[in-house]
Amino acid sequence: ARSMCLYRWYYSNLCQRTLSFTIFLILFLAFIETPSSLTRTADVRYRSLPWEPPCGLMEGVELLCLLVFVADVSVKGYLVGWSQFQRNLWLLAYLTVLVVSLVDWTVSLSLLCQEPLRMRRLLRPFFLLQNSSMMKKTLKCIRSSLPDMASVGLLLAIHLCLFTTFGMLLFTVGEKDMEPNRERLAYFRSLPEALTSLLVLLTTANNPDVMIPAYSKNRAYAIFFVVFTMIGSLFLMNLLTAIIYNQFRGYLMKSLQTSLFRRRLGTRAAYEVLSSRLGQAGATPEAVGVKPQNFLQVLQKVQMTNSHKQAIMEKVHSYNDTLLSADEFQKVFDELDKSVIKEHPLKPQYQSPFLQTAQFLFSHYYFDYLGNIIALGNLVSICVFLVQDADVLPRNRDDFVLGILDCIFILYYVLELLLKVFALGPWGYLSYPSNVCDGLLTSILLVLEISTLAVYGFPHPRWKPETLGLLSLWDMTRLVNMLIVFRFLRIIPNMKPMAMVVSTVLGLVQNLRAFGGILVVVYYVFAIVGISLFRGTIVAPFGNSSLAPANGSASCGSFEQLEYWANNFDDFAAALVTLWNVMVVNNWQVILDAYERYVGPWSKIYFVLWWLVSSVIWVNLFLALLLENFLHRWDPQNHEQPPAGSVE
Amino acid sequence: ARSMCLYRWYYSNLCQRTLSFTIFLILFLAFIETPSSLTRTADVRYRSLPWEPPCGLMEGVELLCLLVFVADVSVKGYLVGWSQFQRNLWLLAYLTVLVVSLVDWTVSLSLLCQEPLRMRRLLRPFFLLQNSSMMKKTLKCIRSSLPDMASVGLLLAIHLCLFTTFGMLLFTVGEKDMEPNRERLAYFRSLPEALTSLLVLLTTANNPDVMIPAYSKNRAYAIFFVVFTMIGSLFLMNLLTAIIYNQFRGYLMKSLQTSLFRRRLGTRAAYEVLSSRLGQAGATPEAVGVKPQNFLQVLQKVQMTNSHKQAIMEKVHSYNDTLLSADEFQKVFDELDKSVIKEHPLKPQYQSPFLQTAQFLFSHYYFDYLGNIIALGNLVSICVFLVQDADVLPRNRDDFVLGILDCIFILYYVLELLLKVFALGPWGYLSYPSNVCDGLLTSILLVLEISTLAVYGFPHPRWKPETLGLLSLWDMTRLVNMLIVFRFLRIIPNMKPMAMVVSTVLGLVQNLRAFGGILVVVYYVFAIVGISLFRGTIVAPFGNSSLAPANGSASCGSFEQLEYWANNFDDFAAALVTLWNVMVVNNWQVILDAYERYVGPWSKIYFVLWWLVSSVIWVNLFLALLLENFLHRWDPQNHEQPPAGSVE
After folding, report:
1. Which of A115, A149, B6, B78 could form a disulfide with A111 if both were Cys (CB 3.0 to 4.6 A apart)?
2. DSSP summary character for residue A238
3. Which A residues, 173 through 212, put their C-beta within 8 Å of a C-beta on chain B?
4. Which residues of chain B make contact with A42, given a CB cutoff of 8 A?
5. Is there a contact between A442 and A413 (Cβ–Cβ < 8 Å)?
6. Is B346 contained in some domain?
7. Which among A478, A495, A622 has the least Cβ separation from residue B173?
8. Residue B345 lies in a domain
9. Which string of DSSP letters, residue by residue, matches A339-357?
10. Where in the sequence is the domain holding B108, given as residue range(s)?
11. Do A622 and A501 reside in the same domain of the chain?
12. Which regions of chain A are under pLDDT 50?
């Protein structure tokens, strides 16, 4: 019973949220720790010296987090029992990671935070991984599709090597002394260079450029590049998608089945427990079953959503006092799968016929449409002024008309809010999520507008709110005004074909957690590795303050000319953005080339690895998830079941 | 009976091939017709004046083709009958297209080929489309998925507009007189410009560049771009893939079913005809069935592959003389689905034990391995010399050792060829496709090597074959030598996981015809439209001969600096390559920008349309086909059925 108590307490909301927060905290530390991201820009030319936390502060927070994890692992260990613990690889790894982290922490503190390498940072994402069963499943799924992916990878490698040697030969032949082949000099000078060129072409990031010198010389050379891109990028890369999707589909389906099976087993066990109690009292073999009263008693203590509990209780009441058989008992729990339609509170009752008419008018959906049209007008007015002001110097812009218009629109929004509250009653108003969103925006707008008026006075010709800090209050008003556009998104579900798409997207977002988690883990690990490898290698050019002169010497398309200075690994936030840019793949050859020059040719390995993990594997995985969800929802056969990804 | 004869004749191989060739010919005309592609390069700086065919030559060929189509449509019309003809939209359209083409042709000839617009060129791809039932089906499938795609397109448009206005506001606020926001000046100057920037970002083609000015100023701006890319490129674009895949899957499945159903109906009808004949003779209702003899007689006249006919006849013989029931009759035709294992001719029998041993040795598969190893050695030697010669001026390269090595390798290949022919017999040798390929390569190599030796003499130190024309014989030898690498591809099916992937790919290639056809149609139409819109608009810069000076003035990343001169629409072949480059999407903003400057802002519409059709729709369609084929083949359930795409 004590372990039951502990179990309940451990899986209570409070405990789980504390754990999640701790994980978030320890991951978040990376932004503040020594290569601190607390500067305004990551650009090496303009970057100020960041604030460095004193030694011990971050370490203190970290120790607290680690202690929470120690408590977590001990509770988990106690709950599953020692023999299970030994067999559970994840728990063992958890323990190991904790021990290593604590040892590393001690070393770090004893060296006064001057240690060159922090092992424990690399290990931190493990805590996130370990806490989500869905992420573990996805990882397992990825691992099981690795052999197939390796075979396509091998095909890709063969394809690359073949075309590299063929290309090198092709651009070497027919070379004369006077005119060395420009294509060879630019992209096929040596074997590694040619390989890089074609690898980048595989991602299409240097597409027309790589073929320009040869193609300018002779049309026929284009065939080489087109065939290469077709086979590599169109065929083999998509084959990879197919393989991942195939594995993924089967795997998630199976995990859904086991999850359903487990629940059935659980309810069956509950049934056995509840019915055996009756068996002791009555002992007639025919009357085996669960008494609804007992069931209801147990139900009171179970943690579940109120609406679900209500539905189950109603279902049980409908059996009034006859014993529940095993089948009926199972059926009762099917209620859990049904989503509950939320009921809105009743509208307030008004006596006067005038008020009743007003209520009818303002609660009608045409009133919503009117609001949308007004919001559209607001948006159009903003756009018109944007276009008009585009070529005007900031000093000469006249905000008078816009100021007046904004006042009017905000007045309308406030009026709409009040009328709706009047028509639906305060609670009725808040029971629609869309109204909550509108109301929130309106209140923010109102507060901002009032403070704008208070600070700058009422709009008059040549009225020009001045800037205070980064954004003036007036600018804030306009930005928030823009957010009113989100009202339009409410129209979408009213259109039939859109509704399906949107509901799929919304359903997807729920199932996205595991994938987001894996992305976070991958980004975190690579960012930390990148920081320890490349920190401080990109140095600001001479002539720090002005741009043009430093630029003139750099050749077109180079890191320096494109001013990619902010794409470095000097702190965590900058590393994340750099990794994102490489993941998006476009122009990654620029970063590849820059790091080859600044650091060394081995840096390519890091970037290619990151490309493989993020762009090839993760993006395909994401596509697979999307396909899976979408097809599942659109499949007319299994319309009843919950979507595949929602298993936890 | 006459129409039956005509039917047979029309669907005979000869007739169908003539038709296919005519279609190919009329499509191919575009390369030679007035903006002729018969120049060495498409680069406007170096392009010589192309050969223009005299008026009447191409038109004569075209008339011949059109007459063939007239014959085709009249035969088809006769076969389906007039009432069917009226209801068949495809045939009516065919007739219309032919009439329009002929009228246009007359106009063209009467104007002495100087007419400004040639309608009929645009209509030509219709002939290709009309001739393939699979392509029609695919088109229908695309049309049925258009509504769903439109809804995602609408979402995309909303997404774009929202972020455009939001971005414009964001980069306008907080602007001061002295420092106008650099991001706004570069990418968000006006509404159309901002829209283009974000549309290009949707394809990730300007990824890091577009965020650099803002990101250099403040880290937080990166969030705007990352969120935009995530929603647009990762979410909505992949949703489009899912929608197309979903439609496609269902549609192809259905077409497979109807196709199977039709075949069953056909065999059933054949059964009824054959069995009724017997009914007249015997008239016993129990003994309804087909006599194997009758069946075999009919079978003799049917056109089908010999191996299939053999298999069916064997099956029928196994029923020796009992009447075939309807079920058995159907089952006989299942043989058609089974692929037949080709038998190799017997090896020649030698008497002497020495010869027998030799035969055993050289027909053993270890001998193949040895050949592969030698070929690998050949490849390695080529690579070594490539790397070694990379930095040497062409004049100083010494080809002596390589010449010797090549001689040796070619000798070995010839020897291998002879030994294999000896071991397997000439027909046995040719029955393996891989051997045919090897033999062909070896013969080409042998001829080339002999002529090289004849021209340049035997290799000696400082031996240096001189260039004759574009490629010297010696270079040809080396290139063909490279092709020997394809031998290695034979190893792949020996590896288990690779075999699966490769077999899928090979199966896919068979089903790719319809997709390739649609791609050809789309490319053709857009290329012709592009030629009539943009021909001659890109003009060579001053200082035609030298490069560097013309370049210096152009800003980095512009069409002129990147020397994209060859990406124009001045002739058909150049237009195809330009369209390909836009389809691959990378750096397409450069071409977009150049045509906006040279032609006008409306040119954007053309390119965006092409991007939508090719990159968005076609590439997704291709991915859908690939997924469909792959999943079908890997699905353990329907392992017996033919893959979905193989229906004709």
Report:
1. A115
2. H
3. 173-177, 180, 189-191, 204-209, 212
4. 215, 219
5. yes
6. no
7. A478
8. no
9. PPPPPPPPPPP--SHHHHH
10. 1-131
11. yes
12. 279, 281-286, 544-551, 638-648
